[in-house]
Amino acid sequence: MKQYNKITPEGTKDRLFGECEKRGGFVRSLRALFESRGFREVSTPVLEYYDVFDTARAYFPQEGIYKLVDHDGRILVLRPDCTIPIARLIGARLKNERGPLRIFYHQKIYRHASGHSGLSGEIAQMGVEFVGGDLPICDVEIVELACRSLRSVCGSDYQLELCHIGYFNALVDSLNTDPATREQIRELVEHKNFPALDLLLERFEGCPAQKALKKLPALFGSVSVLEEARALFSNEAADRALDALADLYNALSSLGLDHLSLDLGLVNQADYYTGIIFRGYTAGAGEPVLSGGRYDELIGEFGPARPATGFGINLDLLCERAEGTAAVPPPRAAVLVDAKSPVTEAFSLVERLCSQRFAAELIPVRDTRDAPAPEGFDRVFRVVDGAVKEG
């Protein structure tokens, strides 16, 4: 008995006309923006060897990966991330290219959506990677481009949160704790779980970083949180991170970008990012539609080490949340034809209409003379006795 022949797998869905048109409009807008800034497109296979992600297991847990086996018994995975395969591509095939490299991609990723979490297991992403630049202006460029990207598809209805992972790392480094406890602290800060965080940090009573870590999830808002953070904890590494974040915020503000805020509790993937982290939101989205940051150590796992920064946009979530940004479809034209209609005249008409930016469709009917005009079209043409008539 067929049980699954009319449904899609958990975490996937069919997408109908309007949603595909809307996403297509986003893609065209973002592609034009990225190309105008000198970024060039690459693509990686949807199937990768598991070793690509096993090397980067500290960054991406293997539990979230769909796996399969090829005919030689080698483990393959459905691509669960775009940046790691691009790091492989750069390390293997672009290692001799002079930098900086400006790369963009438009691909799908696949991640295991367990149970009834409501999370998608198939996600369309579009993003950029800026490889080979480590000056502060490189971060300014990427974050400014992230803001422009959101503005191009959301108008002014977006917010970008900024952080620097160096402050969190300075705090937990001063605790001199084990990796498992460090990860527990990171997860509790990331999810703003104050009660559990307070309980976990009790063992570090008297440590200068304890008080700062307890308040870290609440350190968000305007630029004033940087001084509050500095008052809570200060050493060379922490001050360097806060100074870099302040410089970035001021540079972006000088460019007229005002949809910015700071969140020092933004500590996702602390082992992956090495500097600035940022997330972008649009109204009604409980999770970020854009995320990115600086990752200077990843490419070195696949070839010569190169600094890098970038971001990715969740196109599916963007389509669900962004309002009033759907692409305007072209006007529709119907060309009614019957068995007596000259083929050359019918297709010539379709070609002319397409050149005039119509979406032209051939509509087969029994008799073009008395067939009713189809609904939903802006213009209707009939091929009658070798001549074209409108209406």
UniProtKB/TrEMBL annotation:
Main location: cytoplasm
Domain Aminoacyl-transfer RNA synthetases class-II family profile, chain residue ranges per copy: 28-111
Subcellular location: Cytoplasm
Entry keyword tRNA processing: no
Other observations noted: This function is generally fulfilled by the C-terminal part of HisG, which is missing in some bacteria such as this one.
Family the UniProt entry places it in: Belongs to the class-II aminoacyl-tRNA synthetase family. HisZ subfamily.
Biological role: Required for the first step of histidine biosynthesis. May allow the feedback regulation of ATP phosphoribosyltransferase activity by histidine.
Database matches in PANTHER family: HISTIDINE--TRNA LIGASE, HISTIDYL-TRNA SYNTHETASE
Entry protein name: ATP phosphoribosyltransferase regulatory subunit
Gene name of the encoded protein: hisZ
